[in-house]
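forwarding from the other thread:

> can someone predict this with heme C?

sure thing
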Amino acid sequence: MTRIKHMLSAKNAFRAFMVMAVSGMLFGACKSDPNSPGIEYMPDMYRSPSFETYGENEVYGQKIMSARVPASNTIPRGSDNLPYPYPNTFEGYEAAGANLKNPLKASEENLAEGKVLYTRFCVHCHGKKGMGEGTVPTNSEYPPPPSYSKGLKDLPEGKMFHTLTHGKNLMGSHASQLTKTERWKVIFYVQTLQYPEGKSKTEEVKEDTKEQEESK
Ligand code: HEC
């Protein structure tokens, strides 16, 4: 019995202590200064030690810029960042033409996205029909690019990719505007412009894959 009483009183003492502690905290938070933030629980969460990306900050004991250049001989993750193996030479161009194949699926979706990219990055020179009738050559001294459906009709996709990556004569490189995946998408669309009168290469590919799937 005395033991139980003892426990009860310990419980009560604990309760009283908690009431006092909580009300102490509550009243402690009241300050007459309206600009005071009161007591801050874990102040680091309010005032994080934020770094200015391009400013000088103390990192590992050194005062350096916190945005660092990547370590040498490293590349960011993702297949779009793999180095392009063909150099900007005649041999590189020929090798790309012979070996490079579009890794993407010839789907309606990729073709549609390729069209959007073409309208943004190519149409002003190459024109809607891809015959070199863009506004840049028609309104200036800029020589019109060759027509996809005539001079470039048989141009392999690997060479297109190479030209998009390194540029060729008057056409600049588009490597900084388009990721590798985007370059392949726009190539799907260029291939439809190579065949305005009939089946595009893309459509042929699509039919092939359909037949393959059906015969499975
Ligand atoms: C500033 C104008 C301009 C823009 C923008 C431009 N091109 Fe070109 N393009 C040219 C010219 C000029 C040539 C002819 C280069 C040569 O063979 O001398 C060319 C050639 C090409 C060729 C043939 C390359 C070869 O290997 O012979 C392809 C394919 C091509 N462009 C695709 C594109 C695509 C796709 C875009 C958009 C992402 C684009 N171009 C944007 C001007 C342009």
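Residues 121-122, 125-126, 136, 145-146, 152, 155, 159-160, 163-164, 168-171, 174, 186, 190 surround heme C (CB under 6 Å). thats all i got for now
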